[in-house]
UniProtKB/TrEMBL annotation:
This is Polyketide cyclase. The lineage of its organism: Bacteria, Pseudomonadati, Bacteroidota, Chitinophagia, Chitinophagales. Belongs to the AHA1 family. Residues 17-138 form the Activator of Hsp90 ATPase homologue 1/2-like C-terminal domain. InterPro entries: ASHA1/2-like_C, START-like_dom_sf. It comes from Chitinophaga agri. It holds the Pfam family AHSA1. Coiled coil: none annotated.
Length: 141
């Protein structure tokens, strides 16, 4: 039996908002649909989230021109309010998000196991772009 160890990629952002707002905007479907995409020619038309251990989530990410879409989802393995979210994606990869209060701002550190289809730099850049969208949306709404 062969075990494949996937490299872990870590991205981060400091959001100029208190952790309660950051947590709400990260987890509420009406907010997720406003930021869960990597570029302006994409959008997230559908999002469902059952934030609890054993709960599942799914967000549809789609090109605005209708040429491509996919569902990003998984199952929660750990949830500590305002501090930690861990989940397993549908393909078995693990993801961890840490939320740290820094005065009036919140540091978000997300670590995910890389997939094998795309270069690591492309994956890091894509996930960072989504996190940057989250930061911008949260700070301006």
């Amino acid at each position: 039996m062969t075990t494949t160890t996937r490299p872990a990629i870590t991205i981060e952002s400091t959001v100029q908002a208190p952790v309660a707002k950051v947590w709400e905007y990260w987890n509420q479907p009406e907010h997720i649909k406003q930021w869960a995409f990597a570029s302006e020619d994409w959008h997230a038309p559908k999002s469902e989230n059952d934030l609890r251990i054993g709960g599942t989530f799914s967000t549809t990410m789609a090109a605005k021109d209708g040429s491509f879409s996919f569902d990003f989802g998984g199952e929660y393995t750990d949830v500590k309010e305002h501090k930690l979210i861990e989940y397993t994606l549908g393909d078995g990869r693990k993801v961890s998000i840490l939320f740290s209060t820094m005065g009036d701002s919140t540091k978000v550190v997300q670590t995910f196991e890389a997939e094998e289809e795309n270069p690591l730099e492309m994956q890091r850049d894509g996930w960072q772009a989504i996190l940057n969208n989250f930061t911008k949306y949260t700070e301006t709404h």
